[in-house]
Write a structure and sequence with these properties.
The protein is mainly beta. The chain contains one helix and 16 strands. The strands form three sheets. An eight-stranded parallel sheet has the order 3-5-7-9-11-13-15-16, with no helix packed on it. The chain has a six-stranded parallel sheet with strand order 4-6-8-10-12-14, with no helix packed on it. Strands 1-2 form a two-stranded antiparallel sheet. The longest helix is centred in the last third of the chain and has 9 residues, at 155-163.
Amino acid sequence: MKIPIKRQHPSWAGMSTEFRELECRGSGTKEDPAIIEPSKQLPNGFTLEESDLFITFQNCYLTALELLSCQNVRLENCNIWKIFISHCFKVVINKSTIRRKLTLRYSNDDKIEDCSIRKLKIVVSNYCFIKNCSIKKITSDWRSINIFEANRFPDYLITWIENKSWFWKKT
């Protein structure tokens, strides 16, 4: 199956956009998700837009990933410099490392488990479940309500999080 992606490059005239297709195995259904794995054709950074296919990234190293208006995307055992998730639904990130920043913007019902995250930014995103992660820094707005469970934070963040209008669950 081929999945359309968008990639931006700096050029002498500014930024240029390249549209490509990633070849992957699987049909993109719940029973047979499209699997994206490391390969020579996989760019370091790209955008996936308006997809409702079931897509799983496995063991990928990426400098930048942008998910726009997507659902049913899953990342497993990935190492990503920065990831921007906007207007998405049911994105799952499991056993991955986010080295710079993970941004959730207008996204709902996402699940992040067993990850190491340097900076988590949450903007008007609700009912995201963040469990058993190591998080060094969090920024959020008051309009986001999410569930945090069994995470590891620096001490100074615990009081800040408890004073926000988020659901907070310690176990």
